[in-house]
Every structure is written in structure tokens, then in C-alpha cells.
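FIELD: query
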Amino acid sequence: MTSSPLTPAQVAQLGDATGRIAAYAARSLVQDFPHLDLERLVEAFTRPIAVEGTARLYLAALDQGATPADAAGKAGTALIKAWATARQAAIDAAEAARTA
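FIELD: result
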């Protein structure tokens, strides 16, 4: 990944891209799992750590030659997988505590 600082225009583009990735990922999950709360998903996907990870993955995919759409898809998929892994870990921990 390039280490040169982003211009203000690039920062704005990156912010727009990561926001769209979060929104599309959240909407995609709600379409497939309507019991999920869209606002809570958007909140989770726009927390600083999620935004930083999404932006990092998006930029890395661009640096590897992906189109912006493909880079967004890769970052969005990673975001959903990270959320699902964290959610499952929380469910498993709550179940372990309940049965202990």
C-alpha cells in the first residue's frame, strides 16, 4: 500500500467509499436476515475500528489492481465476515456463561 498521504479529495473519496461499503453491507445482511436491526448494523459498521479496517482493506485491494467496485466488494465481504465472527463469539461466550 502506498505510504504517501492522501489529498483532501482522496480523503473525501475514501470516506464516501467506506460509508457506502458499510451501508451496502448492512442492507445486504438485513435483506437476507430481516430480523436484524439495520440501524444497529450501520452503527456497528461505522465504528472507528470498522471504518479503519474497511478503508485499509479497500485501499489494499486498489493497490493490488482491483477496480473500485471489486475493492469495495472485498472490503464489504471482510466487514461482514468480521461482524459475523464477533457475533458468533459473543453468542458462544453467553452460552458458555449460561451453562457454567
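FIELD: remark
Helices lie at 8-32, 38-45, 48-63, 68-99.
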